[in-house]
Amino acid sequence: MDPSPKNFPILSYVMEKFPSMKRATATSTAGDDKYDVEQPAPPLPASEASQKPYFELTEQMPHLTDPKLISEMRLAVSDVAQTRSMLQALGERPDHESVDTAKAKLAEIEMNLAMQLEEIALSPRGEESPKDVEERKALEREKQIYKSVLSLDEMHEAYEKLLTEAEERLQKIYDAAVAGGDVADIEEKEEVVEEEVNEDVVTILKAAEGNEPVERVNLSGKRLKFLPEAFGRIKSLVVLDLSNNQLEAIPDSIAGLESLEELNVSSNLLEALPDSIGLLFKLKILDVSGNKLTALPDSICHCRSLVELNAGFNKLSYLPTNIGYELVNLRRLSVPLNKLRHFPSSIGEMKSLCFLDAHFNELQGLTPSIGRLTNLEILNLGSNFSDLKELPQTIGDMSSLKELDLSNNQIHELPDTFGRLDNLMKLNVEQNPLVEPPKEIVDEGVEAVRAYMVKRRLDRLLAEEQRSMFEENTEANSSILTRSASWLTRMVSNVTGNLSGYLGAAGNSNADPYLNQPR
Fold this sequence. Notes:
The protein is mainly alpha-helical and 519 residues long. The chain folds into 2 domains: 9-185, no CATH class; 199-390 and 401-407, Leucine-rich repeat, LRR (right-handed beta-alpha superhelix). It is 38% helix and 6% strand. It has 11 helices and 10 strands. The chain has helices at 9-15, 46-49, 57-60, 67-76, 78-90, 96-122, 130-178, 199-209, 323-326, 439-443, 446-508; strands spanning 216-218, 239-241, 262-264, 285-287, 308-310, 332-334, 355-357, 378-380, 403-405, 426-428. The chain has a 10-stranded parallel sheet with strand order 1-2-3-4-5-6-7-8-9-10, with no helix packed on it. Strand 5 (308-310), helix 9 and strand 6 (332-334) form a beta-alpha-beta unit. It is globular. The termini are far apart.
C-alpha cells in the first residue's frame, strides 16, 4: 500500500519522512518523530532491502538533503499520506474476480428488488407484507456489502492515480529547486500544445473520403501523438499499424473499423484501451505491448475472433475474469513483463490456446483449471522469482505440452503427474531450489526427468496400496481375533455351564440303595 521505491522513488523517499514511515535508527526512541536527512539510514533487513532502489536517491538528487525542500515536499503530498492511512484501516484492494462477483450480485439484487416492488404495485392491497419487508431489508443489507467492495476497489484505483500525480508534482518541485526558484512559490502550470494532424494521416483520410479503398495502413514510427476521430470512418480498413508512436489514447471511434482484422498499437504511451474495442468483432491479431496499461477492458472479451493477443511489457495486475469463456479461438497469449499475480480460472476454457508466455510477472500460483489447456504446446512461466513456488497436479493433463520454462522461480518439487507429459521435449528449471527430481536427474535431460517422476509416482501409488492393504489386513485380523475370542468365550461358557449342571445334578441325585445298604 506504501508507494513503491521502484515506481515512485521521490514520493517513497519523502513519505519516509512522515512519522508513520520514518526509518528506525540506532539512537531513535519511542515517540521520536524527528528525522535527520543527513544521517545515513541503518542497513535494512534483506526482505526490505530488496524493495529499495539499487542506489541511494540522495546521490542522484543531492538537493533532497535540504530540510526546507523536504518540508515543502511533505506539504505537497499530505493528501497521499492521509489517503494511505485511510486505506490501511479499510484493508487491501479486492482482487478483480471479487469485484466482478460483487457487480454481478448487485445487478441480481437490483433485479430482485425491482420485481418485489412490481409485485407490491400489482397486489390488491398495494402494501408490503411483514415478510416482504424483511426480505427487502435483507437484500438492502446484502447490497451494502457488495457496494462496499466496489467502493474499496474504486478508492484503491484513485489512490494509484494519486501516487502518479504526486510523483510528477514532486519532480517539478525538485526541478524548480535545482533551477534556483523559490520552492514556496512553485505553481504547476500546464503547457498548452497545439496538436497538428500528421500529413500521412491527412493523406489517408482524404483517400478514404474519396471512396478510394483503404485496406492497409502503416503509420509506425511517425511520432503520432493522437489519432483523429475521423479514422473510425474507414470502413474498409483491414490492417492498422500504429506502433512506435507517442499515442496516449485510442479514440472511441475505432469501433467503426468493422472490417479490421489486425491492430498494432505497441510501443506507445497508452494507459487504457477504449471499451469500444470490444466492437471489433473481426479482429484476429491485437498487439498492445510496450505501453502503460494497468488493465485490459472487460469488453475485449467480445473480440471472439481473436487468434493472437500480445499485451506484454505493461503494468497489468490481472486479466479480465471472463477472458477464457469468451476468447475460445485464441491460439497465442503473450503477457510477459507485467504484474500478474494470478490467472483467472476461466483461462482453462481457452481450448484453442497453443502458446502462453507469462514470464517476468508476479505469479503466486496457477489455477488448477490450467490443466484443461490440452492443446497448449509452449508454456513460459520463467522469472516469477520468489512468488511462484509450486505447480498444480493438473499440469500433467496438458497432453500436448512440448516446451516448459520454469526457470528463476522458487519451485522445490515437480508435481507427481509430471511424468504424464509424454510430448515434452524442452524443460528449463534452472535457478530453482529443486529437490524432486534431484539435480543429477535434471542434468540428464527431459527423458530422465520424466522417467524419474513416473517411477516416483508409481512408488508412491505402490506405497499407498501397501499401506491400504496393511490397514485392511489389520482390520480383518482384528475382526477374526474378535470373533475367535467371542467363540472361545461362548465355548468356555457352555463347558462351564455343562460342568456346573453336571456337578449340581450329582449333588441332588437320589442315593443308590444297593451301594448304601449296611454291610
